[in-house]
Amino acid sequence: MVTRRKLLKSLSTLPVVGGLMGTGLISAQGLSETISPYAGRNFFKELGIRTFINAAGTYTSMTGSLMHKEVTEAISFGATEFVDLDDLHDKVGERIAELLECEYATVSSGAFGAITLGLAGVISGMDTKKVEQLPDTTGLKNEVILQEGHNIAYTHALKNVGAKIVTVKTRKELENAINKKTAMMWFLNANTDNAEIKHEEFIAIGKKHNIPTFIDCAADVPPKENLFKFTKMGFDLVAFSGGKGLRGPQSSGLLLGKKELIKAARLHTPPRGSNIGRGMKVNKEEVLGLLVALELYLKKNHDAEWKLWENQIKLISDSALSVEGVETVIHVPKYANHVPSLIIKWNQDMVKITPEEVRKKLAEGHPSISTVGNKNEVGITTWMMAPGQERIVAKRVNEILANA
Ligand SMILES: *Cc1c(COP(=O)(O)O)cnc(C)c1O
After folding, report:
1. To test ligand 1's pocket by mutation, which of 150, 241, 335, 338 has the most ligand atoms within 8 angstroms of CB?
2. Which residue, 8, 49, 168, 366, is most buried by CB atoms nearer than 10 A?
């Protein structure tokens, strides 16, 4: 018989509990109910997956961003109870609308999901027959007008609804393109400078012709002000990614704007099933996770965070510059990924290594470091790093360049 005394005795001969985690010893002692066998288990290691320092940014392929503890706590909390999915979406939508001072809001499956659902709602309105008809747009308004410079891969989110993309270059072309099949006008904030018509004029044209306007702001946080700016400016619908600058769940997003349009968009989402959005479900855990991520984001000291990023970038830049022949540029993209960013280039006659080789060495070193870049330069941001990691990056960059 195993008495409490014997068990304690046998445990005392084992290494500290932390050292047992992940070895299976804990559950072998029958303590799995008091100490989770999952605590301390390194899933990535088990799976043979290397983690890395993210010196690149909020890239989808790199899993976006890291969630704060408060966010994962909200996710864990969500997993403990049943609630009505629609009720949760209603209440969280209202709370987000209040926080962001807009008419209405809903949590979507990413910015991409928000674009698809937003357009679907615009086309169907509250007519459930039309909801069920999509993506067949026969007899429905199905043209979306956007500027040629805004026509990126993500416009597939619009095509998924069954819509036809109509691209224009000038105001005159835009006004000529509007006809009785026009459902919506779509604007890509990231590419504002690649096209002639800017925000206010775009909205004014939409209002003049009574066409709803949508702006994709997926990667446009920071600055925080953008969360408020575009609904107030007059866009009918606005989309943000939840898993980029907001640091919510990667598969979450925000659709903000006109209540009647977002209500209609919701008709295309679970628990309803006869629609194009059934596969864009957002579970209760992620709905709560995004809400908390947003609350944290709104409260955080953005000036202090910006200063930290600037200092981190300067440290890495100085470290690279200490190698003769190296040049750096520190810049802040005007639209999208609006954070202090570093470009490192060098004279390859003096520093005999290509940017691709440098990036490969960074990725293959210990710890692994992911960067962006091209044939001519290496690109680095620090906003997705844990504080302190900038020192490791600075050292590795210097080592690789100095030894080339
Ligand atoms: C990231 C991104 C998207 C997709 O956002 P998800 O939240 O990953 O669905 C759409 N548009 C732009 C401009 C983006 O940068």
Report:
1. 241
2. 168
